[in-house]
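Annotated sample (chain length 531).
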Amino acid sequence: MSFGSATGQGVRGPEDARRSGAAKEARGSLAGPVPSIRYTARAAPAMERRANLMTLAAMIPTGLLLLALVGGAGVFAADGARVIAFPYPMDYGEGPLLAQTRALGHRENIYRADLTSPPYTISNYPPLYPLVLSPVARLVGPAFWYGRLLSWLSIAAAATLIALIVHALTGDRLAAVIGGLTLLAFPPASYWAGLYRVDAFALALSLSGLYLCVRRPDARWTVPLAALLLTAAIFTRQSYGLAAPLAAAAWLLAGGRGRRALALLALVAALGGALFGGLEWLTRGGFSFNIVTANLNAYQAGSLERYLADVWALMPIALTAAGLFLLVAGALRVPSWRLVGPYLIGAALSGLTIGKVGSNVNYLLELGAAVALALGALLAWLGPRRAVTTAVSLLLALDVALMVLASPYRAVTHARLGQLADARRLEGLVGEAGGIVLADEDMGLLARAGLPIFFQPFEMTQLARAGRWDQRPLLGDIERQAFAAILIYAIPEVPLHRDRWTDEMLQAIERRYVVSERVGQTLVFRPRRGG
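Output written by the structure step:
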């Protein structure tokens, strides 16, 4: 057999003998190069070690990036636990939402169209978030912890969904983990996660609908279920009606599923329209007045510039990388861009509304999710390009460390957590007032005590300045000293009270009330003796 020598059975026949001799002669003629073969054999381990070192060197930046992101997740968890356990208000907007939760639990209308009589309050958002929490409020009473817990879990769920979306788009597990953890390190998301506010829940709902469209685009139940989730996000916070529905439809359309994309948008529009019409009818026009008219605040370009400058200072590399992915990956037709690109564009457009008077970093939450998606998709796309991936990972690791360590929002959180004694003192003042108390930043103390909120300063002030609410009845109450106490949060360097109270209100308070004490940053006004 021709393979006999290979099996060690010896040479057979004259032909095999001649072949064997020829082979020996050939081996003799190759005697010179043999040492080079032995040299190559000795060099192989060295070459392997060098390749391993190069691989290890390439992995170090990625390891540093993961280490920074895990550190950010640890900070997210630690700060979230402290905020959830803190019993007093952490933010101006928590009090009204807690009051709305309690009102919905008692089947009360939170969208009043007629504000000619008290209470002078506004419900800025659709009802889903307080509605979900209202059964808990009925069971355990008014408290901030359950709303904060829902928000914190929602951000954690949003991070998980980002990872799942990146993995479904790219199949890259490492890039998926990096994308998900990036949201937890994003300073506005980490800060807002622990608050009794609607935004985190809306983000989780919208990303759930988006993930369904990516993971199961052809399943029969995908379009109706995704439409339901996207609509739920919109009826948690109305600004979530742009980025996620746009991205979901664009993804389906780019995959040759035009009919499903149209069906998704049509179903979201139909569900949203039906809910809007029903709530508008039930509240006799109060729903649109509260969530639309009362939200049309003045726009300040300077405010937009300040917020964008703050975010840019914290994460310039991440924003640059996301922008480059948006431009370059789209031009090169990278498959993941078909979802990430539209979502990033929609989130950026929604984020521009942060320039409205009274806006806060919650307007950037969806943009943070879009940046996280873009970074995950970018790293997956760059994966085979080892040198570029190494450089990008190293720069992002430095950027994430800056986000976590230099975030000014963490300083705000820790400052409020350090005001426990002041909050207790103010709670005591509210309980001992013996009458109606007005408050701005500390309005949550009223809701926590189960007391009605008589007046929401910021919202009503903006309506008064826009000519949509007559403040004269309230001014008359101030002049008559109808309030047992008025709590005004006043920081000389940041005059928030000028946005929260009209000049006429402040002048009437100064005439008819006197500062009895200062508790932290809060001035406590009591009726002036002798009128």
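Annotation: Confidence is low (pLDDT under 50) at residues 1-39.
Annotation: The radius of gyration is 31 Å.
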